[in-house]
Amino acid sequence: MSWENISIPVKILKPPKELEKPQVDRLWGLIRDAVEEIHQMNASSLSFEEIYWTCYSLVIGGKGDLLYERLIQIIGQHATKQADMISKISDEYFLVILNAKWQQFKLQHLMMQDIFMYLDQFYAKKKQKSPVFQLSMQQWREKVLLQENIKDRLLKMLLGLIHMERNSEVIDRVLMKSLIQMYLEVSNKELDFYTTEFEEKFLLTSARFYHVESQDFISSNTCGTYLKKVSLRLKEESFRVAHYLSKSTGPKLLKACEDENLKEHAKTLLSMESGCLEMIKRNKSDDLKLFYELFTRIEGGQDSIIEVLVDFVKAQGESVVKEETIKEKDPSDLISNVIGLRDRCEILLKKSFGNSPVLAKSINDACVYFINLNDRLPEYLCSYLDRKLRMAFKGMSEEETNLAMVRVLQIVRFLKNKDVFKKFYEHFLAKRLLSGRAISEELERLMISKIKQACGQQFTSKMEGMFLDMKLSNETIDGFKNYLSTSGSLEKLPSVDVNVRVLTQGFWPTLPAQKALLGEVLNSYCNIFTEYYLSAHNGRKLLWQYNIGTAEIQAQIGSRKYILVMSTYQLLALLLFNSTEKLSFKTILQSTQIPAYDLMRALQAMSLGKIKILKKSSRGKEINDDDIFTINRKFRSKLRRVKILAVLKSETEPERNRTREKIDEDRRLLIDAAIVRTMKARKVLMHNDLIIEVTKQLNSRFTPKTSLIKMRIENLIDRDYLERFENERRKYKYKA
Amino acid sequence: MKIIPIEEVLKPLINNPEIADVKFCVGKEGIEMYGHKTLLAVSSEMWKTMFFSGNWIEVQNKNRAKVDIPDVDPFAFKAVLEFSYTKKVTLNDDIVIEVLYAADKFLMPELKELCGEYLSKNLSSRNCLLLFDKALKFNEIELKNRAAEFFEE
């Protein structure tokens, strides 16, 4: 045979020759004496090498079994002796002595672990028996810790000390740590002595303690005070874990505390008089922060806070957006309140709810809910912005202005019907641009850029178009004035400083082009301008909109001269008085051809307002056909420049309706386009799928009503874009 | 630059009484030999425990200067020291069994392996008688049996 294949000769030493009995007795005697010395704390006389060798000799002499068994025996005897001694100790010294004896026992058996190393490595391991030290721990567990006079007494005293500490008494934490550590050290993988003999009981006592304490405390304190106390208690328990308990107890202990202190009382804490709702109402952000921190620790805690918060925001929002809150047709307060509520939510989110994304979403949803409750809110937002922009955000720093704009746009983002906002914004912007008054172009452009950010490029294209028109108009008018002075047309006409704005149809909210008789002079100017403009821009068509024009005239009333600022319509009416003293409404109407409603308002502004240029024959606000107007010769004003306003004042009912109609018309077109686009791509589609697809496409602009989409489908069927299937009426087919 | 192997650096320390921190009395005659606790502890669990286990340190401090090892052959102990410092060992038929004994006792698995390799390579008809004798002395039943088999052939 070949010697190459001999197995690792480690095995060569085994099995060795059995030792003879006298030799064994001699060696065991040495071991027994040495262990005795160790147990007597006389180890200093011992030689490590000698005991190690003795143990080694016994093991390689095949006497591992004997050594192991006898060691169990003497360790057991020693442990029993200790137990007898400890159990007789009075309560006063019990824990201290037990701890001292335990520390001693541990050290002794660590020493034994060292000298019986060879036994552990080459006997116990091979036979799958516990190492010597574990054996010692087992003996201590069984003989000492389970001794009837020790077991219950130890547990009771430990739990008693913890109870004392919970009642603010000072206890010996080092002793606690050592004794509780003992439970851990005598545990092993198979037997979790710590958990079964200590932890389970400790957790039960803790739960009972907090059960009693929390009930007592919650009935006599406010929510805020209660939560502070609970928070403190939780901190204390964490410290307790750090100081003298097993780390693994931490989560269980905190859960028990949280369950008793928070989960048990969750309903009360949410709804009690000083509870969550009240904290939100009173903006108690610090209390609320604590509330949130604690409640997120318990199951379903965050959800219950969200519920309260969302209910509050919705209820508050509902009352804020009510029409009744509008006083004197001024929706500024309503919008301020909406912004205020939104702000309040933001602050709570930041200060109390740690900017939690989940809560942020819930708050946003609640805002979307209440903001869209009032159909007219988009319009109010525009009117609010109109006021602010007209005054150029008076009294606000650049930063504040910016912030104010951002806040409004946060609301705009929540609108379901952004198209309404867009229309009204365009409407108000047009008015601002055409009012002839100075506006802050910088602020207007800033606002539009912010709207663009929030709603997209397309959303603001018309608004930007308006600005472009204004710029081009300035250039055009400069060119026109130049043309007037060089062409010689001026010689035949009285000098009028004409200013014309050329507005691109499509960019501007369409107003019905109304005819009016301008009188000879103005008419000539208009004709010259038309001629001039069309010569430069071939193929275009100009439609005059006198109804939104303004004029400044010099007038002598009595002995004084004034500059009167008025609308074009007012001017046309007033010019008639140059040749006549008295004119009836009917006559003015015929001579100017101004629509009756507009003329009425123009005359009202001149005869009923603060500045009475004209006198009306009848009393009251109404104007009848036969009312006679005369120049008010007694007109006096401290100012030389007098503004007769009111024509371009707030949104009038007909204007508003017109805007509304325009929005509806736009929506019909958009829906038609969406339906046709979808059907063209899909060819055949079920009714419900078509509705869903169309709604999805339009959602960024507005939320179309299903009934409206249905109507448009019918309309498109009539117009031969679609047809129904003969046998399946809810299925549509695209007709190319 | 010339690279000096670490075993060359440590070699002068082997059994050098000048800066040693432990003295051994080895074999029946108690021959004095010297070592360094730290270096010994690196390759032996037993030395590590004996010199550095916190449990025995107070006890050991009292007679740490001298450790009696009457059951190990001085030549074998020299080999143990050599291996502890250099991870290399020079074995021969005369001491291999004694080294094996010491390596087992001191819990030095690597040294045991080297002895094993030596034995499986060098057991031959030439030395089997000698090893047979040694094996008898050390109660090595398996080695004895193997040597005997060889002898019979």
Automatic annotation (TrEMBL), chain A:
Protein name (record): Cullin-3a-related
A UniProt-annotated Pfam family: Cullin
Family recorded in the similarity comment: Belongs to the cullin family.
Gene3D superfamilies named among the record's database cross-references: Cullin Repeats, Cullin, Chain C, Domain 2, Winged helix-like DNA-binding domain superfamily/Winged helix DNA-binding domain
PROSITE patterns on file: CULLIN_1, CULLIN_2
Domain (Cullin family profile) ranges: 376-607
Keyword terms, alphabetized: Ubl conjugation
InterPro entries on file: Cullin, Cullin-like_AB, Cullin_CS, Cullin_homology, Cullin_homology_sf, Cullin_N, Cullin_neddylation_domain, Cullin_repeat-like_dom_sf
